[in-house]
Amino acid sequence: MNLSLEPNNRIIHIFVAVGILVLTALAAWLSNTAIRRYEQRRSITEPNLRTRIHMIQKLLRVAIVLTGLGFALYALEIDALRRFAIGLFASAGLVGIALGFAAQTTAANLISGIMIAFVQPLRLGDRVEVEGDMGTVEDVGLFYTTVRTWDNRRVVIPNQVLSKNVIRNYSVKDPATPARVEIKVAYGTDLGRVRSMLLEEARANPLTQASPEPSVEVAALGYRTLSLALVAWAADHARSLKLAGTLRERVAERLTAAGIVGRVGAPDKGPSRPDGPSRHK
After folding, report:
1. What is the mean pLDDT of residues 44-72?
2. Does residue 85 belong to any structural domain of this protein?
3. In this structure, is residue 71 part of a structural domain?
4. Looking at per-residue confidence, does 180 or 38 come out higher?
5. Residue 150 domain boundaries
6. Exposed e or buried b for every residue in 3-38, given b needs 16+ CB within 10 A?
7. Distance from CA of residue 90 to its chain's centroid?
8. Separation between Cα atoms, residue 12 and residue 29, nearest integer Å
9. Predicted pLDDT at 80
10. pLDDT tens profile 54-63
């Protein structure tokens, strides 16, 4: 009789485990939906709060899945799976298993991701530069952070790398970004006249912010020309790129119409040197 009941018991345990997994999936979906609706209902747009909420959402999902998986394995009443489930519930045992399988880097990425979400050297939507890559933070995950560059590439950076390297964040204090346009004019050119024209074009552009005010300064002295740098401030990095492009176009047209010979962003080459060693008698 016991032999006939054992297969039935196994089937019951399997159904219980499957039921637990279904409930786990449902709970994970409900938690995601509740957090997403809360974010939409409150119209949360502040980068610090959005970053924390998204990290909490990820941590909650992982906690629900691991808990459900542990109960499902325990419900099967198989000794090996039960021992694994008990180890899964014990955080010390879980860390020991991870370290035992040489997962130190994974654990470091997880800890770094949590630190980034709450200490916030960068946030969702921030304009950052990390190891030469500049872009906008799209996602701060448990193990990796995704940055979208200006040419629409996705740079996936391990969180441990972010915690160990210098992060240039152009959005933390003030997202305003300067647009710099450099022109070269010949020596003897009326600099006051050129400066006035450049400032007029900058102030007339709708992308230029009133503060800080646009400025023009002598940036360098070349062999045949001197360089003037026009600096105008835009609200953010994307607008500064557009502002710089439109100013270059307008400045070139303005200089041509005024009869001033100038080069916008052109290199200033010195005199060419003959090849080979010079000979002196």
Report:
1. 76
2. yes
3. yes
4. 180
5. 123-169
6. eeeeeeeeeebeebbeebbeebeebbeebeeebeee
7. 34
8. 26
9. 66
10. 777 777 888 8
CATH number at residue 139: 2.30.30.60
Please report the pLDDT score of residue 214 as a whole number. 93
Q: Are residues 49 and 76 in the same domain?
A: yes
H or E, element range at 245? helix 237-257
Q: Token match 């052109």: residue?
A: 266
- The pLDDT tens digits of the residues spanning 111-140 come to 777 777 776 778 888 888 888 888 888 888
Instruction: Residue 232: give its domain's CATH number.
Output: 3.30.70.100
Residue 178's nearest CA partner among 212, 206, 151, 218 is 212
CA atoms within 13 A on the CB side of 59: 14
How many structural domains is the chain composed of? 3
Asked whether residue 159 falls in the same domain as residue 183, the answer is: no
Task: Based on the fold, state whether residues 14 and 74 are members of the same structural domain.
Answer: yes
Alpha carbon 245 to chain centroid distance? 24
